[in-house]
Design a protein that fits this description.
Layout lengths: L1 H8 L6 H8 L2 H39 L4 E8 L2 H10 L6 H7 L4 E7 L2 H13 L4 E7 L12 E11 L2 E13 H16 L6 H35 L2
Parallel strand pairs: 2-5
Antiparallel strand pairs: 1-2, 3-4, 4-5
Helix pairs in contact: 1-3, 7-8
């Protein structure tokens, strides 16, 4: 609705006269409360998930002597992009629709050293009762036509609130360092050309993605070799 739109677009600098006008309508005020709560809930969901992953990381470090996670990044979608996405999807701009239909408000990128580590992490996430798997897109097994690779998993994590338990969604992107290197640079080039990338550049980018993939494979084989050396040494 119109009021929803106004509220959402001015979340950060809403003036009080508007608030007063809105508060004459109890229903709208309730919606307003929900709008205000939204970024807080997603921020908390990210924190909860990050803590779970930190714990896994610490355990792996203890058992293996090193962590398979290179780094973790998180980000929150800003209200404007949320609204734009709803409009693009042809949905009413309500908080309920955001909770229900937008899966990438909270995003987490986990960058691992090796491809194997990504699936190891994913298998672990699947087994946990405090994480629900909502959707999986395996662009590692099935890379996009431009060569993009990553494992995308939409999960939900429970937040215990006064009102009860609430499952909040987070989009996790898992990649290797090589995949992350490629995706980060491709993103920059893509935006420089304002999404109209000349064909030869598209081609070169896809070739570069293949090179990144080969690098991953090479490093994985080197690791396997080193690990088997290890085994042959220990009695
Ligand atoms: P969105 O509406 O953009 O979220 O698309 P989608 O719902 O089809 O999701 P998908 O899982 O395909 O991609 C989501 C996210 O993955 C994007 O927002 C990017 O962060 C990343 N991504 C997907 N494709 C590419 C790509 O070709 N290049 C780069 N650099 N990133 C990509
Ligand atoms: Mg997205």
């Amino acid at each position: 609705s119109e009021i929803d739109k106004i509220i959402s677009l001015n979340l950060n600098n809403l003036d009080l006269s508007k608030l007063k006008e809105i508060s004459e309508h109890a229903d709208t005020l309730k919606q307003f409360e929900e709008w205000k709560k939204l970024p807080i809930l997603y921020e908390l969901a990210l924190e909860e998930l990050q803590n779970k992953i930190k714990l896994i990381q610490a355990e792996w470090e203890l058992t293996d002597g090193f962590s398979p996670i290179e780094h973790i990044k998180t980000r929150l979608k800003d209200p404007k992009s949320m609204i734009e996405k709803l409009v693009r999807k042809g949905l009413d701009t309500t908080v309920d629709n955001i909770f229900e239909h937008i899966h990438d408000i909270a995003g987490m990128r986990i960058v691992c050293a090796f491809v194997q580590d990504i699936y190891r992490m994913f298998n672990h996430l699947q087994q946990r009762e405090d994480i629900k798997i909502i959707e999986i897109k395996d662009y590692i097994a099935n890379p996009k036509s431009n060569g993009y690779q990553s494992l995308h998993v939409i999960v939900a994590v429970p937040l215990v609130l006064m009102e009860g338990k609430r499952w909040v969604k987070v989009e996790i992107q898992m990649r290797t360092l090589a995949m992350d290197f490629w995706a980060s640079l491709e993103h920059i080039i893509f935006y420089k050309y304002d999404k109209q990338v000349p064909p030869h550049i598209v081609h070169e980018l896809t070739e570069a993605a293949k090179a990144a993939d080969e690098l991953d494979l090479k490093m994985l084989n080197l690791r396997k070799e080193v690990l088997s050396l290890d085994e042959s040494v220990t009695p």
